[in-house]
Specification:
This protein is an alpha+beta fold. It has one domain. It is built from three helices and ten strands. It is elongated, with a radius of gyration of 16 Å. Bound molecules: zinc ion (ZN). Zinc ion binds next to strand 10 and helix 3. The site of zinc ion has 9 residues, from strand 10 and helix 3.
């Protein structure tokens, strides 16, 4: 029998996300408001700017060009908004994120 869990109103098979949950439980998360980060844009392709070298004749550095991240477990989008469901998450390094719902459902130790 399959076990299911509801995340943001969607039904997920536990066995499909178990690996990510196991991985996430081994990380240290801290609650943070999601804010845009710098990105490099060239020919319509956007990649996060993390200090790598680039050629300014082909590539543009956009200060807030990295506009969202996805929850590592349920792929929920996190972006800059006053709505805490999408605007606040848990992160290890500012680049890897969990949504609050996944964090509270799977990571917080059950008392
Ligand atoms: Zn999630």
């Amino acid at each position: 029998m399959e076990e299911y869990v509801s995340i943001h109103g969607d039904k997920w098979k536990i066995s499909d996300i178990n690996e990510q949950i196991e991985w996430a439980r081994e990380q240290v998360w801290k609650k943070q408001k999601w804010l845009p980060r710098a990105a490099l844009v060239s020919k319509g392709k956007t990649s996060e700017y993390v200090g790598q070298s680039y050629r300014p004749e082909y590539t543009r550095l956009v200060e807030d060009g990295w506009s969202h991240d996805h929850c590592e477990i349920c792929w929920w989008s996190l972006y800059e908004t006053d709505n805490p469901e999408s605007g606040v998450g848990y992160t290890t390094d500012g680049r890897t994120w969990l949504c609050s719902e996944c964090y509270e459902k799977f990571i917080v130790p059950k008392a």
